[in-house]
Structure formats: C-alpha cells, structure tokens
Design goal:
CATH class: Mainly Beta
Number of domains: 1
CATH architecture: Distorted Sandwich
Distance between the termini: 24 Å
Oligomer: single chain
Strand order of the largest sheet: 11-12-13-14-29-23-22-17-20
CATH topology: Beta-galactosidase, Chain A, domain 5
Radius of gyration: 19 Å
Shape: globular
C-alpha cells in the first residue's frame, strides 16, 4: 500500500494542481486531484488480472475547470436538485443559483466544490483527506462550513469515501461523488450492457425538471425494478413518463434500510470484463444516472465520450429534501458533526 504525489497541470490563471495516487497490494489504483477532490482515474483488474481505468475523466486539471458532466466530482454543499432554487430554514428563505431550468442543480456550476482547490493531507499509507472551508452564504447557503472528503483504498479492493462537516449555523449539507463508471474501461463505449441490482422497492416520483412530487412509486412491475440483476439497456427506452422526464434512468431510489444505517445499496456487473462493483452507504438514497445527458466531448487519452458511455451511482439525501419535510432531512445543525461513509467494493465475476 502506498501514496504518491505528482503534478497534474495548471489552470489558465497559472494555479498548479497535484494528483494523489493510492495503490493497494492487488494493483488497484485510485488517482485523485486536489482541484475539486475529483476522482481522476481508477484502475481495476479484470477477471484475467488486466487493469483498466474504469471512470470517465480528463488527462489534466484544465479539463476539470469546465467538466460539464461533473466527471469524478465531489459535489457540495448540496447534491442534486432544489426546486425553484430556494429553501426556507429557521424562518429565513435562502436563494440559490438558478442553473437547471428554474431549479438549482448541484449547488453551483461555476462555483461548485468540484472547481475549487482543496487542502490535501496524506493519512498513512492508504488515505488522503481533502478539506475545504466554505463561508457563510457561499452558493447562497447559511453557515461557515468546514468539510472534508477522505479517500481510503483498502487491500480488500474497497474505495471508501468518508465525508465530514461542521457548520456554525444550521445549514444544508448533502455531499456526494459524481463518478461515472464503465467497468469495461473508460474507452470502451456504451455501458448499457452492464447489469444492475438496487436494494430498493420504491423511488421518489418526479415531475417536470426531475423535482420530487413527494410521492413514492413502487418499483415492482415497472421499468425501474432492479431488485434482481438486470441489463440496463433492456428497459431504458420504455414508454414511461418517469423515463421520459429523465431521458432514461436518472432518478433517486429509496434504499431499503433504516435511515442512517450502513448497508448494501447497489451491485453493478460487467460480464464482458468480469468486473463488478458493490456500493454500500449510510445515506438514505442513491441517484442512478445512466449518462443520458453526457455531452459529446474529448476525455482521457483522446477518447470521445458520448451519451450513456458510463453510469453514476450517487449516494445522497433525496433530491429537494429540504423542501419536503416528509423526507429524511439533509440539515446539519450548528456545532454538530456530520459524518457519512460510502464504499465502492470491486470484485470479479
């Protein structure tokens, strides 16, 4: 197990980024940049021991300064959508950036956490902690927030993401990781041949703009039922109003466990390569996004990425939860400590 540091290029203003590489005894390697705490590369062995990079991204930091699809991104303060770009907390209304129709998506596009330099600290031989200070009213949210995300790679082929946060005022805090996985390799084209299983029996139904209505939709008998391993392509283009709103799969699944309990969330399997990834989290939801809106663009090694070339499994509080008191709440109380863990465990099949 080891951690190393290398240069990762410069932004247009001359700011230099670094790349932190963690490697375990099995050859699994994660590379993360201090610019945005973005996961840049993830080399995973296949059933024959051949390693490929299984996440979409860019060759140097300049690509991440734009990054319209949020490849590898650490999202904060709030992942996903907030309706009408506003919410009320303790009797005060807070206005956010309008960046997704009338709504707010991922807090800010130009000023998101994924486009800021984090302070990086190596923790032993298997972890790097990336920390960030976010001022009161930053992105429109209340409270001075100190947050961090720690990437840990274990010899059991687990990539563990630990989020911590503390604020001096009540605030919304709902971080996630927005990595795009293609278990055949980032350069292999469509990921729709992969099979998915989700530990869920219902989802949060949405209206136009992918905003939850407050209703829960049972999955049995619908195209959204992944209670057993199912090929993603099989039903993604079915005639269904929820699929039409998301352009395919792009919706929050309610994880079938107690709120706050750490447990099994999802299993993604690629029978071509024999790679699999199992997701565990203590958060209540996971956004399954099938890359429906990936803009055609040049990525790593000159590869052209296109629609549905990878999928995201974004652990989270439900979208627009702050405006739905019936949902588990992403409210971090002043002076209290937020901690959440999401694990991606890689294997072969």
């Amino acid at each position: 197990m080891s951690v190393s540091i290398s240069e990762f290029g410069s932004l247009k203003d001359g700011s230099k980024a670094s790349l932190y590489t963690i490697t375990n005894k099995n050859g699994l390697t994660a590379e993360i940049t201090d610019f945005g705490a973005n996961l840049v590369r993830l080399f995973v062995p296949d059933r024959n021991g051949k390693s490929d990079d299984v996440v979409l991204g860019f060759d140097d930091v300049l690509g991440y300064s734009d990054n319209p699809s949020y490849f590898g991104s650490t999202i904060g303060r709030n992942a996903n959508r907030i309706a009408d770009s506003k919410f009320t907390l303790n009797g005060e209304t807070f206005e956010l950036e309008v960046n997704d129709g009338p709504n707010n998506l991922h807090s800010s596009f130009d000023n998101g956490y994924n486009k800021r330099f984090f302070k990086a600290q190596i923790k032993g031989e298997d972890s790097v902690c990336f920390s960030l200070s976010s001022a009161d009213k930053d992105q429109g949210f209340p409270g001075n927030l100190e947050m961090s995300v720690t990437y840990t790679l274990t010899d059991d082929n687990e990539l563990v993401l630990t989020y911590n946060g503390r604020s001096d005022k009540d605030t919304v805090f709902n971080p996630t990781n927005h990595s795009y996985f293609n278990l055949s390799g980032h350069a292999s084209g469509s990921a729709m041949h992969c099979k998915l299983q989700l530990n869920s029996v219902e989802l949060t139904k949405v209206r136009d703009g992918s905003i939850p209505t407050g209703e829960f939709l049972k999955l049995a008998g619908t195209p959204f039922d992944f209670s057993e391993l199912t090929t993603i392509a099989d039903r993604i283009d079915n005639n269904d109003d929820q699929l039409e709103i998301g352009g395919g799969y792009d919706i929050n699944y309610v994880i079938d466990k107690k709120v706050g309990e750490y447990g099994f969330t999802a299993l993604l399997v690629d029978e071509k390569s024999g790679r699999s990834v199992t997701v565990y989290t203590d958060l209540p939801g996971v956004q399954f996004y099938a890359g429906n809106f990936i803009k055609t663009q040049k990525g790593k090694q000159g590869v052209t990425y296109k629609k549905r070339d990878a999928v995201c499994l974004e652990t989270q509080f439900y979208p627009d939860a702050v405006n739905h008191p019936e949902f588990p709440q992403p409210i971090l109380k002043a002076g209290e400590e937020f901690k959440s863990v999401t694990t991606y465990k890689f294997g072969t099949c």
